[in-house]
Every structure is written in C-alpha cells, then in structure tokens.
Write a structure and sequence with these properties.
The complex is a heterodimer of chains A (494) and B (769). Chain A has 20 helices and 20 strands. With 494 residues, chain A is α+β, with helices and mostly antiparallel strands. Chain B is globular, with a radius of gyration of 27 Å. In chain B, the strands form 7 sheets. Chain B has an 8-stranded mixed beta sheet with strand order 3-5-1-12-9-10-11-20, with helices on both faces. In chain B, strands 7-15-14-13-8-30 form a 6-stranded mixed beta sheet. Chain B has a 4-stranded mixed beta sheet with strand order 16-27-28-29, sandwiched between helices. The chains are: A alpha+beta (494), B alpha+beta (769).
C-alpha cells in the first residue's frame, strides 16, 4: 500500500510502485491539468512538485519532477502537488499564473501547466533565488509556440516579486501572497503523521546488509530478491515502462542509507541514490570541484537532476553517461553489496564496464555508495560536453580530464571519453604519455593523436564517426586550453 | 485586452482531446504499422492478438465499409494499407481493446508479412526514375535563357534544406462516438474539421451529414494537423462505426513521430545573374521536393515554394521549376510557411554564393534588389503597399546595422576561439490560400436574450489566438464588452464546409465573416432603435453597450435593445459568408493575383560560434515587422517570437535522420531536438513598423502566423558568416540545418583523423545515457 498526499488529499493505493505518477494523477485521479507530451522527461508538460519532509520535521522541501518518469512508489510518504493543488478560487490566479498570462507566455497552453509548476517549485525553494536560478527552474520545460521570450519575461517579473519573500517562514508569506493555498502550511504535520502511520502499519522486511538494513516497503524477502532496483526512474521508465508496471520493484530513491555526500579522510564518499541536483548544490562538492555547477548545468534539466541518481547513471552503462564520464576522470570506485550473501566489495568505476551494457557485477550486487579522492586545490579538473542542443540533450561526445602537475611536470593524469566506444572510456595511454612531461603545444598535440588510437566511435543519430573523432580531439584540446590558457593557444593545438 | 484562453491554460482547465471525460464502454485503439518502407503486403495475421485479454477487434482494409481513400489533393492514400505498403509506419491495421495498455500490448502480436521492394528516400533519385506525385510546375517571367547574356556575373550552386518535425506538444488523436442516426460524432485534434468529416464519410460510406466533427482547441498544430489529423479521426470513426462503441485513439510520441509527415526536405539547384551594378537580372531554380509516399498537401506546398522563390527581391527574368518527388517516407505535409521557407532558403543561398564570390557583403546585394511598389512578381501579381525597403531601412536604422557590423568585425579581430556572425533576412510572404476557392469562411453569430453573444466560425484555436481576435472583432463591431462574447468550439454542424485553419489566413477569413455577421446584426438592432426611439438611423451607433445618437447617449442600452428585438420578433442570429475579393490564379499559366496582400519584414541576426567546440549561441535577432494595424500586439508579438524560434530550430538543431531503409532514427524528443529556453536567442527585439495594413486584412491587422518563421533563415547565414570569419574565403556547402556537427566539420575540413581498420561504421540507433 502506497500512501502519500496528492494536493490536499491523502491517497492510499495499491497501484504498482513501478507505474508512473503521471498515469496515476491523470487516469486514476482524473487530474487532467498535468499533460502528456513525450513520456521520457524531455518536455516537462507533466511536471509536478514532490515535497519531502526535512530532517527538522518542520519543513517540506519541494522539487519539480516530470511525473512521466516518477515511479508511483517514489511518492510514498511525500506530498505530490499538481496544478489543481495550487489553483486559487475561480477567477483568481496565483502570482505565477498571473505573470505568465500578463506576459503572453501561454499560446496553445499544452506545455503551460508544466511551466506553472516549475515556477511554483522555484517560488517554494528554500534557497534565495536569482534571475539565473529562476530561469533554471524552467530549463526542463519545452514550449513549441512562444519562443520562450514571454516566459522569460514572466519568470524575471516573478523573481522580482520573490525578492520580498522572507527568509523566515516563507510558506506563510507564500500562502498570504497566493502562491500556494493555505493548506500547504499543514502539510509538514500531515507528513509527520503519515510517516508514523506508515511505520506502524507497513509490511516491511528488514534485509540485513553488513550492519545496515534496507526497508523494502511492501515486498517480502523473496520478492525483494528478484525485484528490479529502481532509483530515480529517469532511464528505466524511458526504456521499459510497460515492464516496470508488471514486476516488483525495489525503490532506492530517497533512502537515507544511500544518500548524502561526506568526506572520509582524503576521499569524498557519495551515497548511490544521491541525485545530480544534490551534487550540484552540495557545498562539499563545490569545495573540491568549484566548477561543478557549471559542468552539471550541461547534464539534463532541473527536474531530471532532481530525480536521476548518480548510481543509476553508472549502472545504466550508457557509453555517454555524463556523470559516469565525470566520475571516471575523478578515479571513482564503487562499493558493491550483495544483500543475499552479505558481502561487500570495492570496484573501480572503470572496471565496471565489460562491453556494451555489460557490467562486472552480479545481478544481486547493488551500489551502496561510491568514492573518489578529493582533488587538491592545485589539481586541474574539467568536464566538456557537446550535444546537438547544449542543454537537456544527450552528448555526441563528452569528456573529463584530471591533471596533477608538480613543478612543471605532469605527475598524474586521467582522461575519460564518452560516445566514442561501446562503453564509457578512460584513455590510459594518453594519460600515461603525459606523465613526467612538461605541458607544451607539441606534447598536447601528441596526446590528442594518441587519444585517437584509444577510441572506436560509430556513426549514429548523435553524429558520424568523423565528427565524433574530431569532436573528441577538440574537447581534449578544450581541457588543456582551460587548464593552461597562458601557455597554449587554439592555433598552437589545432 | 486580454487573451482569454491563457487564464484557463495556466490553471490546467482548458480541455484538450485526451482530457475529455471518458465515456463508459470506450474502446482504445492502437495502430499496427508497416514494418518496412516499401513492399507487397502479403498477409496480416492477428489471430494471436485476438486471443489476448481485452482485445475486442482488429480492423484491416477489408473492414472499411466505404472507400479506403483519404487522399486530399490526389486520391493516392489508403486509410489502411491494401496490396502494398509505401512507408515505414504506414497504418496497416487497427487494434481495439478495453484498455489502452491492452491495445498497445497487442500490437506486437499482429504479424504483417511484406515482400520487400526497392526503397527510395532521395528526391533526386525519385525524379530520375520519374516517380513524381504530380507533373512538374514552372513559374516563368521574362526570358532567363536570353538574360544570361546580359549578366555581368553568373553563379550556380546547390542548396539543401532538411525536413522538420512539427512537434506539437499534444500528439495526434481523435475520440469518436457512434450516433443513433448510424453515423459518428467525434472530437478531433485537427486544423481541418471539414477534411476529417469529408474523408471519414467517404471511408464509412455515409453522407457528410452523418459525421460531426468538433474541435475545442489543439495543443499545437503548425500545419501538422491540417491534413494529417484525418487518418486518426477516420480510424477512430471506423472503430466506433464498426463496434458501436466509443473509440479513443491517441498516438504516443514515438508513434506520432514515426507515422506522420513533416516539413518537406528539398534539394535544389540555382543559377543567378547580376548586371555590372549588381542588380538582379535573372534567376533559375529547380526544386526537388521530398514528398514522401503520397501526395497529401505536397502539390500545394510545391506551388508556394514557387510563389516565394524570389523572396523579397525583384528579378525581371525568372524560371523556377519544381518536382514533387515520391519517396518511401511518410507523406510530408503542411508546416508553417508551407514551402515558402524552402524556396526562400535557396534564394538566400544564391545571394550568399554570389556575394562570397564577388567579395561584396551579401547585404549589399540584398538591399539593392528589394521589391518596390508596383514591381511584378513572377506570377504577375504586382506589389501593392510594398514595405520591403521600409522594413529593411527601419531595421538597419533603429538597430544600427553598420554599428553591428563594426562590432562583429572588431570582436572577430580580437578573438581567436569565438567568432561572431551577422546576417540580414528580409521577407515577403503572400497571404491567402493559393487555391483561390479555399478563401471563404462563414460565421454564425447568436445574440441571446440577455445580451450575451456566441460566435461560431471555421477557425480552430491552436495557440495562435484566433479566438481572442474573433472575440475582439465581435465585441468591437457590436460595441459591447468582450466579456459578453463567447467563441464556440469549431463544429461542422454549426459551420459547414470550412477551410482548414492554415495559410495564416484564419483570422482574416473568419474574422471578416464575423465582422459581416455582427455588422448585419448591429444594423438590424439600430434600425429597430431608430424606430423605437423615433430617431434617424444615420448617426446611431453602439459604444460601450450604450446606444449613441450622433455621439450622445440615447435612451437605450445594449441589453434593452436586444430584449426589445426579441419581443418585436426581430432575428438575433446572423450567418455571414465571406470570400476574399479580387483574388484569382490560373494554375495552367501560373499567372494571376493569388494573394490578398503581402507581409514584409526584416531581421538582423547575430550569433557567436565557439570555433573550438563547433557550438553556437544566438546573441540577438532584431526585427522590424509589418503587422499593419495590429489588433492584438501581445498575440502578434508572440507569433513573431515563436515563429522565429521555430525557424531557427529548422535551420540549426532540428535534424531529421532517416536511414537507407526509410526508418526514422531521430524518433523521439531525446534524439530530435527543438529549441529549449537556452537555445532561443538571448535577445529578440520586435519593432512594429508604421504601416497602414490592408483592407483585406481583418480590421487592417495583417496575418502573422507564418511570415516570421522565415526570419529563422537568417540564423543559418549568421552562423555561416561566423565560420567564414574563422576560415576566410572558405567555400562551404549550402546545407541546412547547420548542426554543431556541420559547423565543426566546416571549421576543420582538412583534419583527417585515423580510423582503425576494424572500426564499424554501421548506423545504429542510439541509446539513452
């Protein structure tokens, strides 16, 4: 039994945990404001807000999510908000809705509710916003009619209004200003009560896991053992939604055991179910990788980053997974756990990939967390990605580079390259060549040549072989130009 | 005045097809598609599907009671394949089941056996094999053969433009209900309710009066639901007619992308000649249109390519020939601009080709040859109210074109990695259906006894704001508040024999009909007022719901007058018919006066290209546009901004990829990219030119739907300009869209990277990351 709040209603449902939240709100609850555009998280017409009770037990943090890729089970214990849950009395519009109408930001209207929900989510955000973050809130919403400028004007106008939002008790202010109905203020208490009720009544099994235990709601041990592990759903619900509706799923999204980012000695340790957005917003991550937010802005869109987990990206084994490429160059390694055997082992991320979508792990092994050595402040790190569309697109080629330079010599180097082979690649020979050398245009040019021998791209819808080879050369050059702008110039390298 | 629909849109209360409450007993339909692009259809075996839970019927061509034909211009398209299949995704059978999941689950259990035949995907290959949809068309003025001798400069080349997926966010669909009269009533997401009605009646073998089509609104159309909504309407109707149960058919995104036609890709040859003063003397173009497997609207699209082959320029000698080529791809169809953009792209390519070889700025050639008042276009219509030079000069002056050029040059001199590019794109677009008889519309206006007003027309609201404009026309003409006016759904029983909402002409045609009906009602009411108040009819008006006599409030209001009319048994309903005056066109001689008027404008586009990565961002597009006397500046600005960005998408990111087997590889939103928030230009400036409008435009507010799309062509030439700044003197192909891949390969054409002998070059579909 899944239990959650949908707008101001408590929902108790036996619908499958692996079915989509979108189908539930539209066809089970008949809330038709949420639209179906693509069912793959690429248009945002189905955006809803999902609120989660925070550890302080007083506040609820809301995030925009594309309900087409949200497993219904991920709503469990949370507050799901559709447009029907924020509408004011007939004849009245919320400030978000008013801004869109006033600026002409709605033409055919089919994508509009998605924008309304994304901007309402931005209004509810606990962090103070800027024009950039306000626009980022709608970066997962596609509109085919307006050309976006009216929606931009609406967003910037709204952001000006939000400047008056107090730091303390913003929800009371937001309710007073009509951004959300007043029932939002009761949601923290209701979610607390729901949590207690769930804990008291849930059919849960405790699976021992080397001192940890994982709560698998509603599944008995035998079922849990053969269940499909489902994280944010951003890949599996694109690839096989029909199947996920039919089979038991083990939900790992939002499990406290698998979330969080911490430092352990010289390593950074990240829970498997940590989302891309959590990485982007983590102070610790920014401390060790100051340009990470800039890199991650190239990775999907705000709602998808709110949902997609890092380990999900690793395990999906796409040859162009952005997070995989990023962490390969950081020398990440995984902690894999076999719940049945109660065993745990470490595996370097680069050894996870045996062939196209083939993994060096058993079906019973799950990623618990992963770690990487924190780069020194003097280290160089860069991530590059080129896709047909710069944002919210899958890379044609992506690459990351990490360099440690001692004196004038390269002491250590790691390069990763995606989209140029059947698996996400590291380029060991290129890296090895650089070690012990001094950076110069000639050396870099040689490295670019060597890299060509380590890749084997194919032509597909993301580009021809010729393009991918050229692009990888360019992206590797981009790393060096980024690292050594004083020593190298584009004309020297290319 | 507010655009009324958005207030409902933002609350999620506007009802689209899939939002209609489901009627009890509804069956869900899913379409079985041809698995190959060309072949002989040997058998369809659906016994396994029928054994699945919930599956009720599987319909094939044999189950069609009437004629298996939905071709609009040419009867060459069956509703369900019969005998042969001609493209991948062609509907072969229809599965009807109790739930949507059950219907889709059954698709994989229908075996379609096809013996393959050779596949053509390239229009030039089709033309060489004489696979033409209709005989070629040639527009001709002057004598190009003789004119070449007078030219000081002649250039030739090839220009290619890709197709474009409409990507309306609401996919295609229809919901059909059997009626007690033995016919069908349906809600369809269509721009052409009458087309759906006509073809459904034909398929069912009943009269058109037995088929009612109702349209509330569309979640986007852009031409994609003009003729191509018919298939899904007719299939749903066939299901309802056969089973006597309601049938709902909504395509999922990937099915929609696979099965429906798109903007036509073109491959074209051009030859262009100038005199020593760089005045255009002669132009020849040959267009090879990729029509796909059936005619659909291709012949009409082809014709508009010819109408707009010379864009905004005066050329005394023109020969333009177009071939509509049959290939084994889904039948291509209307898309905003309707062939015009393809023709203009070739013209602009020819000018760029000449400018690059002459080493003069292309803007020099463009400006020197702009249309002037009275210039005759190749189809013999003279320009009337020509604003081509005004648009150019206004844009150049208010946005400081020389300053922009200087800034770009200074930036490029300073920067190695980033290069800016600049282009100027003038447009001239003719308004009217080029098939003259289609330029007619009707409006049915009811005044209810409480003074509220209902307006029905043939116009379909799809985001272009036509309902708001019609409401404005009614309110303004009757002299009442807009709140009193409701624009009804578009319904074939209230307004019959409609033209589709297309050709940018919807507000003009239906607005004019509304205006006529409202004028007649107003006259009737004021004559009554004259009698009742014993006042002179001349000088009576209604303003702000008050009757005025020579400007002074008389002793009656709108409400009182309406009530009085009812009790005096005066009709409060009017049905008006409008036909655009003065237009004609002879498709044999290709001469006439096909357009009610033309729309002009000019866009300046600046782009920054990252010459390391091959990516680009558009800094600004600055436009001066001829709206006439805009009826609703906010709606009209929205049309310009939206059309522009859609045009930029066509020219840059949006790349349709079919493989040699006719399979669409860019088959989802993750592999076919339309512009997002960040790929729209950072600045879009829109200046409303001071122009008087045209009497044929509704309240002198010119049509605005399609023309702005063609400003997007400027994006292509701005990027090209930047590439040539990185590689001065480079000869580049004219090939749109100019994707990041093409940019990078153009920036580094000489880099040959080793491909190991074992590398595979097989084309495969990509996978999600």
């Amino acid at each position: 039994m899944l239990q959650f709040y949908l707008n101001d209603q408590l929902i108790r449902t036996t619908q499958p945990a692996g079915s989509t939240l979108l189908d539930f709100v539209r066809y089970n609850r008949h809330l038709t404001g949420t639209k179906i555009g693509c069912r793959e998280g690429d248009c945002g017409a189905c955006t809803v807000l999902v609120g989660e009770l925070q550890p302080d037990e007083q506040t609820v943090a809301y995030q925009s999510m594309t309900s087409c890729l949200t497993p219904l089970g991920n709503a469990h214990g949370r507050h799901v908000v559709t447009v029907e849950g924020i509408n004011a009395a007939r004849g009245t519009l919320t400030p978000v809705q008013q801004a869109i109408v006033a600026e002409g930001g709605s033409q055919c209207g089919f994508c509009t509710v998605g924008f309304v929900m994304s901007l309402t989510g931005h209004s509810l955000s606990q962090k103070p916003g800027t024009p950039e973050t306000a626009l980022a809130a709608i970066d997962g919403n596609i509109c085919r009619c307006t050309g976006y400028k009216s929606l931009e004007r609406a967003t910037l106008y709204l952001q000006e209004q939000l400047a008056a939002r107090p730091q303390e008790q913003p929800l009371a202010w937001l309710a007073e200003q009509g951004f959300v109905p007043t029932y939002f203020q009761e949601i923290p208490v209701k979610l607390m009560a729901l949590r207690s009720a769930i804990e008291a009544s849930a059919v849960s099994v405790q699976i021992p896991q080397n001192g940890h235990s994982v709560t698998v709601t509603g599944l008995d041990a035998a079922t849990a053992a053969r269940a499909q592990v489902l994280g944010g759903g951003t890949d599996l619900l694109v690839q096989r939604p029909e199947q996920l509706r039919e089979i038991p799923v083990q939900l790992v999204y939002g499990q406290p055991e698998r979330r969080g980012i911490r430092r352990e000695g010289t390593s950074i340790v990240i829970g498997a179910a940590t989302t891309a957005q959590e990485l982007m917003e983590s102070a610790l991550m920014r401390e060790v990788l100051p340009r990470l937010p800039e890199h991650l802005k190239l990775v999907s869109s705000t709602p998808i980053r709110n949902m997609g987990t890092v380990a999900g990206n690793f395990i999906n084994a796409s040859p162009i997974g952005d997070l995989t490429i990023l962490f390969l160059a950081l020398g990440a390694s995984l902690t894999l756990e076999d719940t049945g055997l109660g065993q745990r082992r470490e595996l370097p991320l680069q050894e996870l990939y045996l062939g196209y979508k083939q993994l060096a792990k058993t079906a019973d092994e799950q990623v618990l967390e992963f770690r990487f050595p924190a780069p020194l402040t003097t280290d160089y790190f860069n991530f590059e990605k080129v896709s047909k569309r710069t944002h919210l697109d899958i890379a044609s080629v992506n690459s990351a580079a990490w360099l440690r330079v001692q004196g004038s010599l390269v002491e250590a180097a790691r390069f990763s390259a995606g989209g140029v082979g059947p698996v996400p690649l590291v380029l060991p020979r290129t890296a090895e060549f650089l070690v012990g050398r001094e950076i110069s245009a000639a050396v870099v040019r040689k490295a670019l040549e060597l890299a060509q021998e380590e890749i084997s791209p194919i032509s597909d819808v993301r580009g021809t072989v010729q393009y991918k080879r050229l692009l990888l050369r360019q992206l590797l050059a981009a790393h060096f130009l980024q690292f050594f702008p004083e020593q190298l110039s584009l004309a020297d390298l290319l | 005045m507010n655009h009324l629909d958005p207030a409902r849109h933002v609350r999620g209360e506007s009802q689209y097809l899939d939002d209609i409450p489901v009627q009890q007993g509804t069956l869900y339909a899913a379409v079985v598609e041809s698995p190959v692009a060309h072949g002989k259809l040997l058998s369809i075996d659906f016994t396994a599907a029928l054994n699945l839970p919930g599956v009720v019927r599987v319909l094939t061509a044999e189950d069609i009671p009437g004629e298996n034909q939905i071709g609009g211009i040419v009867p060459d398209e069956p509703l369900l394949a019969e005998g042969h299949v001609h493209f991948r995704g062609q509907p072969v059978a229809l599965v009807l089941a109790e739930t949507e999941h059950q219907a889709h689950a059954a698709l994989g259990h229908v075996r379609v056996e096809v013996s393959p035949l050779p596949i053509i995907t390239d229009p030039r290959v089709a033309a060489a094999q004489d696979e033409l949809i209709v005989p070629p068309r040639t527009f001709q003025i002057g004598d190009t053969q003789a004119a070449w001798a007078q030219c000081a400069h002649v250039f030739e080349g090839v220009a290619e433009s890709g197709g474009q997926e409409h990507l309306y966010i609401e996919t295609q669909g229809a919901y059909a209900f059997p009626t007690e009269m033995g016919g069908v009533r349906m809600v369809s997401s269509t721009q052409g309710p009458t087309a759906v009605q006509r073809h459904t009646a034909r398929v069912l073998g009943v009269g058109m009066h037995q088929v009612e089509v109702d349209v509330t609104r569309l979640g986007g159309g852009f031409g994609g639901k003009e003729d191509q909504a018919t298939t899904w309407g007719a299939l749903a109707a066939l299901g309802a007619f056969t089973t006597r149960r309601p049938v709902k058919l909504v395509l999922d995104r990937m099915a929609d992308m696979r099965m429906t036609g798109k903007r036509h890709s073109y491959s074209s040859d051009f030859k262009i000649g100038f005199d020593e003063n760089l005045k255009l003397v002669a132009y020849e173009a040959t267009f090879y249109q990729n029509a796909g497997a059936a005619a659909d609207l291709s012949p009409a699209v082809l014709e508009r390519t010819l109408f707009h082959a010379t864009n905004s320029y005066f050329i005394p000698n023109v020969t333009a020939t177009a071939y509509s080529c049959r290939t084994n791809l889904p039948p291509n169809t209307a898309f905003r601009g309707f062939g015009g953009p393809q023709g203009m792209f070739v013209m602009e390519s020819a000018l760029a080709c000449a400018a690059e070889q002459l080493s003069v700025p292309v803007a020099e050639l463009q400006r020197r040859n702009l249309l002037r008042e009275g210039d005759v276009l190749p189809y013999r219509q003279p320009t009337e109210g020509c604003h081509a030079e005004q648009a150019w000069d206004t844009a150049a002056s208010i946005y400081n074109l020389p300053g922009l050029r200087a800034e770009v040059e200074a930036f490029n001199a300073r920067n190695q990695q980033f290069k800016k590019g600049l282009s100027v794109m003038p447009i001239c677009f003719g308004i009217s259906f080029t098939k003259t008889p289609m330029n007619q519309a009707r409006a049915l206006v009811h005044i209810y006894t409480d003074g509220s007003v209902g307006v029905s027309t043939g116009a379909v609201e799809m985001g272009q704001g036509v309902n708001t404009k019609i409401m404005q026309v009614a309110a303004r003409t009757l002299g009442i508040s807009a709140e009193r006016v409701k624009v009804e759904s578009t319904n074939t029983t209230r307004v019959a024999n409609t033209s589709p909402s297309a050709a940018s002409a919807t507000a003009d045609l239906n607005g004019k009909a509304t205006e006529m009906a409202c004028l007649a009602l107003r006259e009737r009411l004021l004559r009554l007022a004259a009698t009742e108040l014993q006042m002179d009819y001349e000088g009576l008006t209604i303003e702000g719901e008050q009757v005025l006599a020579a400007g002074t409030p008389a002793d009656t209001t709108w409400e009182k007058l309406v009530s009085a009319a009812y009790w005096q048994r005066v009709s409060l309903t009017e049905n008006a018919h409008y036909a655009t005056p003065g237009i004609h066109f002879d498709a044999q001689t290709n001469q006439g006066h096909p357009f009610a008027y033309h729309v002009y404008g000019t866009a300046l586009t600046t782009v920054t290209v990252d010459c390391l990565r091959g990516t680009y961002t558009f800094d600004a597009v600055q436009i001066a546009h001829d709206f006439g006397q805009s009826l609703h500046p906010q709606i009209d600005r929205g049309q310009v901004e939206g059309g522009l960005v859609q045009g930029i998408g066509w020219m840059t990111l949006e790349e349709l990829v079919f493989n040699g087997e006719g399979r669409l590889l860019s088959n989802s939103l993750n592999s076919y990219k339309i512009p997002d928030l960040y790929s729209a230009p950072k600045t879009i400036a829109v200046h409303f030119l001071d122009t008087p409008g045209h009497p044929n435009a509704i309240l002198r507010s010119k049509a605005v739907g399609e023309p702005p799309l063609m400003y997007g062509i400027g994006a292509y030439f701005a990027v090209r300009d930047a590439i040539r700044s990185f590689r001065p003197g480079a000869t580049l192909p004219f090939s749109a869209p100019i994707t990041p891949e093409k940019v990078l390969l153009s920036l580094y054409p000489d880099v040959l990277l080793t491909t190991p002998a074992c590398a595979s070059t097989t084309v495969t579909t990509s996978v999600a990351p």
